[in-house]
Amino acid sequence: MRILFLFALFLSLSHAANQEVQFWKAGQTYLDFLERYKLPLKSLYYNLDREDQKITEEIFAGTRCELLLDDNKTLIQVLIPINEALQIQIYQKHDKSYGFATTPLVLEERKEAFMFELRSSPYNDIMHYTKNRFLAQEFVWAYKNSLNFKRELRKGDKIAIVYKQNYRNGHRMGYPHIDVAMIEVRGKPRYIYRNINGRYYNKNGKQIEGFVLSKAIHKGRITSRFSRRRFHPILKRYRAHLGIDFGARSGTPIHAAASGRVIFRGKTRGYGNLLKVRHQDGYVTLYAHLRSFKRKVKRGSWVKRNSIIGYVGSTGLSTGPHLHFGLYKNGRARNPLGVLRITTSKLRGKKRKAFNVLKAKLNEEIAYHLKVQSKPQFIEIPDNICYLGANNPVMNAEEN
Questions:
Q1: pLDDT, tens digit, 9 for 90 and up, residues 307-338
Q2: Nearest Cα to 76, choosing from 17, 146, 9, 154?
């Protein structure tokens, strides 16, 4: 009976309300959103615990949000993804008050593959065939340190890609992961392989990526690791920690993990004194809870790798002195540990043997798609369609 009641409730809400899709605007804050829809700031922000408050600062421009509104434009519910695994849900309860939750995204991972003959440039051609900007960027970035596109490539060279892509309600979600790719250069194939550590290697097991990070704190210890989604066993809730926390004494120097330009230097409620640095290939590093900034470090200034940019503190929503260190690529959080500087760029021993097994499997996959000349598939889905289904927070709230 309870299941039938919830299902009937869901159907009545879906038919009575108006469904909309909106994209998070650049410069828009979570508090701006609440004020726009006349939502209670106290219960939906100020009364949240510090981890939930900080997660509301992780919403990036361009995020696709799904809203359900009544005829008076009153918000009934909204789903706001914060990464590829977790979303914020705001929903209206039966007593017209509002609830806040962070719940897993329902995603479908698809393995996709295609090959084509070069007509213009790898970036332009991938965009032409797939309309997937992130895939085009990832492909160019993965090859840029081992291949000169302008000098070495010719019209008609074959290119093949095997990759994984997440989808949410028929729309691409998050960043694609290239498993293996091949470019034919004057009749000879050049392969790249994505190893289990998330880094790209050539056929000889040598790492070919150029962007690596140094440690932001030279003597800090990791107190909290990166997690896109984890279930808190005591709170019985899903949480995310989109960075690494390094515990250290207040005043410990913080170093730039890579050279780049400062794009933000200021104070926020959640992250306290906050510094963001933009690097090459769409990377941004984030340094939070600083006690103070290095005096010469201003917005727009250039900082060199390992130069001091600030000092460890406990500003913002913090329980003690530490550095929250985040890494983002094209607006998506990545695990900084996967990009920290390594002592050797070539795999050896057991790691090399495991890579060779993976490489053989991936070679079979890409050889098949080259043989059958797999074509890319792209289906345009209108953005004014809103899907609820399994993501309906009203049903989730009732079940809890």
A1: 999 999 999 988 899 999 999 988 888 898 87
A2: 17
The topology (CATH level 3) of 2-105 is Nuclear Transport Factor 2; Chain: A, (3.10.450)
Spell out the alpha helix ranges (H) of 91-162.
122-130, 133-143, 149-152
Two tokens at 193?
């392989």
Handedness of CA 284, 289, 294, 299 (dihedral sign): positive
Phi, psi angle pair for 249, to nearest 5° = -65, 150
pLDDT in tens, 277-297: 999 888 999 999 999 999 999
Beta bridge partners of residue 90, listed in sequence order: 78, 100
Domain at 221-339: CATH code: 2.70.70.10
Residue holding tokens 């070495």?
152
Is the full-model pTM beyond 0.90?
no
Q: What is the pLDDT of residues 214-266, one digit of tens each?
A: 889 988 899 999 998 887 776 778 888 999 999 999 999 999 999 999 999 99
The whole-angstrom separation of Cα 200 and Cα 207 is 6
Looking at residue 388, the DSSP 8-state letter turns out to be: -
Residue ranges, CATH 2.70.70.10, the chain: 221-339
The encoded tokens of residue 135 equal: 């895939």
Residues 103, 396 contacting (CB under 8 angstroms): yes
Q: Go through the chain and tell me how many residues it has.
A: 400
Nearest Cα neighbor of 132 from 369, 379, 333 is: 379
Give backbone dihedrals phi and psi of 31, rounded to 5 degrees, phi first: -65, -35
